Amino acid sequence: MDRIDAMRAFVAAVDRGSLAAASRSVSMSPAAVTRAIAALEERLSMKLLHRTTRALHLTQFGETYLATCREVLAALDAVERGAAAEQERPSGLLTITAPLRFGQLHLRPVLDEFLAENPAVRARLLLLDRMVNLVEEGIDLALRIGHLPDSSLTVTKLGEVRRVLCAAPAYIERCGTPAAPAALQEHACIMEHAGAEAHAWRFVPAPGRPPAPVAVQPRLIVNSASAAIDSVIAGYGITCVMSYQVAQDVAAGRLVVLLPQHEIPPLPVQLVTPPRGAATAKQRAFVAFMVPRLRQALLRSAAQLQEQPAGTA
To answer: What is the pTM of this model?
Structure first.
């Protein structure tokens, strides 16, 4: 029998005054209580109780051992109560990862609100334009854009984003609007890419046709979407980026969406979390807080793209 269970049986026998009463207290049979106490005495090589037909009496060593058992069981119960409370109360370090620009625009403000309402939670936000392994890198939650492979992780769809081609009105006035994706070879393209060898964007060539790459000759290659967008707003060329990255600029008239009829299908924005049974209180609380807010943010972003003045595409 487990030594802790044996200790509980011994304490209950002393407190209740009989083995029968102890058995009801610890949900064991009287015979099991007797065996538990006998096992303790055998392990200690000391007598703990004197038994008569009417009562139980502690030995001198039994009194000392009883006090020790009470301390051990009280400490164990306290730890278990703390563990149970930890499962119910959001606390501890929460580590989240998301694409750089998406995290800056949408996730960080939501995280700020969550931390303000949950003072026992600390957070680490990793804004990375690369895929990370949640288990290997100690990540609690990840925001992913694009289709994901099947896995044991829980995936929650938050919305969709488009891959949009855009330029500043000043550039369009100076260089004209490309009539089709193939015409991009005649324009100053600004590409956001970590590898300089990939000089293509994907478009749908015609309705009903699958997406296909269209080769371009970039005038500028950067490894940051923000840098590409800044150059395009300044009127130096055309870029192809995620719609949420430029929605505010389109609504404000700083950028114009080009060739929307040739865009590839929208990409899902998804939250990736551990399997539901493995989620901690802090993870469950943040997911419940974040999901409706990010869904609304993505809907607002999509609506901003529709605010582009008519005739500017």
So the answer is: 0.67
